[in-house]
TrEMBL record:
This is Response regulator receiver domain-containing protein. The modification 4-aspartylphosphate is found at D131. The keyword Zinc does not apply. It comes from Archangium gephyra. Residues 8-22 have a biased composition (Low complexity). InterPro entries: Bact_response_regulator, CheY-like_superfamily, Sig_transdc_resp-reg_receiver. Residues 82-201 form the Response regulatory domain.
Amino acid sequence: MKPATVVPEAAATSSPRPTTAPTEPPRPSAASTGPALTPAPPAESSRPFGVINSETAKAFAAAATTETRAFARPEPGVQPQRVLLVDDSRSIRTLLKIYLMARSFEYIEAESAEAGLKVLETQPVDLILTDFHMDGMNGADFAATVRASRDVKVAKIPILMMTGDANAAEVRNKGQKAGINAFVRKPVSCAQLMTLVDTILPTPKKG
């Protein structure tokens, strides 16, 4: 199990990859009698997160074609809210951060529910976004464990649960019994996610 990692707000945007100027292939000299050489095609660039499934690919495609709200900067004197992203897919966690650019958030990532619980033992969190299907503990059991915490602040953290399961109604029912605050089916759009987040986690006011 990999440890959970804290990700700064600026990491929510993807940095452009450095590009190298193409080099013109050498031209054969007039004295050359051999056949003309054809340059080899460029190697296919590798994906940043390895192979992703069709559901994730559709979500990224939607993010690329949908106008998102401008990147938010924290107001002076306002402490950024902290979001715990619990999902075993790194690409999904990155997509969620892109969608959440409209709010001044700090991010903590966890690859499993068990890792997420470890985070909650040591770090303050204002919002939890969790997947339902994960190796080990699922999202509903994770939410139920959070609600049963002896720490009152932890037990009251707003939880938004997501799923790509075909039987979304059953998953929603399990989540509601566990005490989640909101539910959404993947692939989720930016508008859907931000509407739910704005509903369950009001923007902090300057003290």
